[in-house]
Amino acid sequence: MFTQLRRATPRPLIVACALSLLAAYFAVHFPDVEGASVGSYVSTLLIALPSAVALFLYLGARRATLSLLALSILAYAIEALGVATGFPYGTFYYGDALGPSLAGIVPYLLPLSYAPLVVGAVAAARGTKGTRLRLLHILYSTLLLVWMDAIIDPGAASLGFWVWPEGGAYYGVPLSNYAGWLLSGALATTLLLAAGQWSETPRPGLLDSAIIATSFWTGVAFISDMPAPAVLGALLLAYLLGRRSQLRASK
């Protein structure tokens, strides 16, 4: 199976995943090195780029632009609500590691980090058994997003990207965060499907940014001695690569 996945995965994607693991090492061990903030911007942009390009090729310029704009507005709105009120994730705030923030609340980088995850989850869920029904497609995509966040959030908190001042049961992250992701994920996937009007079999490249991001955060979890997120990350990476291979075979 591993050999089949390797053969079905483009070499540039393999290289990108390897580089993301290297970036995870530097992020954990050298968070305060000079130029780290610039590197964060550049790496976030590069991770988001493959799925953004694939989305424009899949939906066309108008629908892709509308989709990304809608996701960005939703991301800013729900995160600002979360920081201001604690709903729906629980009490948290963003640290300085993600750079300047919009209105001093939500980092400008947020949509670049969030949108590729939603695109990847929706693409991975589409065409699987039972997801011809829109409601099931949304549910499956949302569960994938929660799975992703179970890998991302412990590592991101350890790097100071965001702070849970009251702590939580899962590596310092409260379980309310994942209930919040069920809500925000359902809204985001519904919005993406409505704005893009997805109909055809998704392009395999739509998963690439989520795959690279998963590699990075799995690396962060492993290096930071967080076994549960590391195992979840390895399993998700294998799943996403398998779904990418299936989508590629169906084109």
Question: What report would you give on this structure?
Answer:
This protein is mainly α and 251 residues long. It has one domain. Helices cover 71% and strands 3% of the residues. The protein contains 9 helices and 4 strands. It has helices at residues 2-8, 11-29, 36-59, 61-85, 110-125, 134-158, 176-196, 208-223, 227-250, and strands at 93-94, 101-102, 106-107, 162-163. The strands form 2 sheets. Strands 1-4 form a two-stranded antiparallel ribbon. A two-stranded antiparallel sheet has the order 2-3. A hairpin with a 3-residue loop joins strand 2 and strand 3. The protein is globular.
Mean pLDDT: 91
Number of helices: 9
The helix content, as a percent range, equals: over 70%
Q: What string, H for helix and E for strand, traces the elements in order?
A: HHHHEEEHHEHHH
Main β sheet profile: 2 strands, antiparallel
Task: Give a brief rundown of this model.
This protein has helices at 2-8, 11-29, 36-59, 61-85, 110-125, 134-158, 176-196, 208-223, 227-250, and strands at residues 93-94, 101-102, 106-107, 162-163.
Question: What's the SSE blueprint?
Answer:
Elements: H1 2-8, H2 11-29, H3 36-59, H4 61-85, E1 93-94, E2 101-102, E3 106-107, H5 110-125, H6 134-158, E4 162-163, H7 176-196, H8 208-223, H9 227-250
Antiparallel strand pairs: 1-4, 2-3
Helix pairs in contact: 2-8, 3-4, 3-5, 3-8, 4-5, 4-7, 5-6, 5-7, 5-8, 6-7, 6-8, 6-9, 8-9
Based on the model shown, name its key terms.
251 residues; mainly alpha; two-stranded antiparallel sheet; 4 strands; 3% strand
